[in-house]
Specification:
Elements (H helix, E strand, L loop, with lengths): L1 E6 L4 H4 L16 H19 L5 E7 L3 H14 L8 E7 L11 H7 L3 H4 L15 H15 L6 E6 L1 H11 L18 E5 L1
Parallel strand pairs: 1-4, 2-3, 2-4
Antiparallel strand pairs: 1-5
Length: 197
């Protein structure tokens, strides 16, 4: 199965971290720039699909967080333009399995430290912040999700998720060790990553 993986578009939280102290993480919406990014990656995804087989099934899987849902809606519009001939069937599936890593009180801890060196210990792969998840916890969700994905009847899966979740998913797909986890680059908003499983 071909995977077309993207992170949601720029969100209000990406440009103003104080938003996370005013509303729940799941409810943070896209910015106007984020909507434009989603539109552009939708075109890129469409071109990627159209260049493939002439008749196959596509699965559009997205996180239940608002910013991912908004990104998905915009991508879906690009994939279902009425004047375009679409040579595939498109099935949508929302799942909280691919939501962002739960930070818990990590944001409060993060604000205490002013330099990268002081903050490094906060992002240890196994460290679970109060009320949150470690990267290891997120890795378990990614493992479950990828195993579920392998049971689906589809030739291509478009996945709209979040930066830290995507990193743990790529860790599994690319067989990256815990020691090398930090070498996986951070995923930019609406960056398109292609893999096969």
């Amino acid at each position: 199965m071909k995977l077309l993986i993207t992170r949601h578009g720029q969100s209000e939280g990406n440009i103003n971290k104080s938003v996370y102290f005013k509303m729940p993480d799941w409810s943070v919406p896209l910015t106007e720039k984020g909507k434009e990014q989603a539109n552009l990656v939708g075109v890129e995804i469409y071109n990627n699909i159209i260049d493939s087989n002439d008749s196959y099934k596509c699965l559009l899987v997205y996180s239940s967080y608002i910013r991912a849902k908004q990104t998905t809606e915009i991508i879906e519009k690009q994939l279902t333009q009425p004047w375009l001939w679409i040579p595939y069937s498109l099935t949508k599936f929302e799942t909280p399995l691919i939501r962002e890593r739960e930070w818990g009180k990590l944001r409060e801890e993060f604000e205490k430290y002013k330099t990268i060196e002081e903050r490094n210990h906060l992002f240890d792969f196994y460290r679970r912040p109060d009320g949150g998840e470690s990267f290891a916890d997120c890795h378990q969700r990614a493992f479950i999700f990828l195993n579920w994905l392998k049971t689906q009847v589809a030739d291509t899966a478009v996945i709209v998720s979040h930066g830290e979740f995507i990193k743990t998913m790529l860790m599994i797909i690319d067989n990256v060790s815990v020691e090398d986890f930090d070498r996986i680059p951070n995923v930019e908003n609406c960056e398109l990553i292609t893999r096969n499983i």
